[in-house]
Structures are given as C-alpha cells and as structure tokens.
Amino acid sequence: MAKLSTIYAKSLFEMIVDAKYDLRTAITESNAIIEILANAEVNEFFNHPHVKPEKKIYILRALFESEINENILGLLKLAVYKNREKYVINALKTFIKMMKKELNIIEVKVNTPSEISDLQIEKISSAIKTALKGEVEIISKINEKLVAGSEIAAGDIYINNNVRKSFKEIERLVKGQVSAR
User: How many CA atoms lie within 13 A of 11 on its CB side?
Assistant: First the structure.
C-alpha cells in the first residue's frame, strides 16, 4: 500500500513541478481533497466496490473540476479507473510532504498538557526557523498525559521537556535503589 501511494505521490509531484504550478496552491488543494475524502460517507462511497467508476468520476468532476489542478484531478480519476481509491489519501499526504520539503517548510509538532498562547507558538516558531533556516509550520496538540512542559518534534530533532518524563526517571531510580537493597 505504501509503495503504490508513494509512486502516485512522486508522479504527481513531478507533474506539478513540470507544469510550474504554484506549490502552495497544490498543498492547499490536496489538503482540501483529503478532508473531503476522509469524511466517512464520502469515503464509503468512493471505496464501495458496487459504485461504478463512471459515477465516481462524474462526482469527482462535479466537486473538483474547476477547483483543483488538472494533474491532481487526473490522479483521482486514475485511482478510480484502476480501482485504487483507497490509496488516494496516503498518496496525497505523501505528495504534501514532498511539496513541503521542496518549499523548505518544516513541520513542527508541539505537544503540551494545555493550550499554548500565540506568543509561545511564535517563540517556538522563531527559534526553530532560526536554527533550521526554513519556514516553520506549527502543529499544536494537547496531550493530557503530560503533567507540565512540552514535547517538540521538528524533523530529526526531538525535545522532551516534560515533568512526566522526570517522574518516570525518578521512579526508575527509586526502583533501582530498592532492588539493590
């Protein structure tokens, strides 16, 4: 599955770049398609084996023909004709990653126990932008398992600065001393 999705993503990437289509627009369009196709009812329709490809193509054209790049629409139609609709979302996600890499957009995942302020997000973004010399896209998530602090992942960099980790280390040390007695 991953291999076929990657092949579709690479082909789409090459077509979009060769066509000199705006890469940011391609990302926006792909995200919109993913959001629509991830809807349970839409997903069920497009992956249903008894719905004829012609009907699926008709719906795709009605939804997207004047809204998205013809190469992206071509990928959707090809997947339908080849009965590979289930690969489209993963192919588009992989395609988006390729586009972001081409644009030097660094995706930064920030996990905190509660919502963080815009100022905190801006400080994180600025520090990473300076260190990694790229555009930064912050994805902030609340992880209630964290007691305090944060976890930040940007590319190969992972910063774990949370109290839960410290509690686990203290627990490990205490258990080690108790076992030694």
Answer: 16
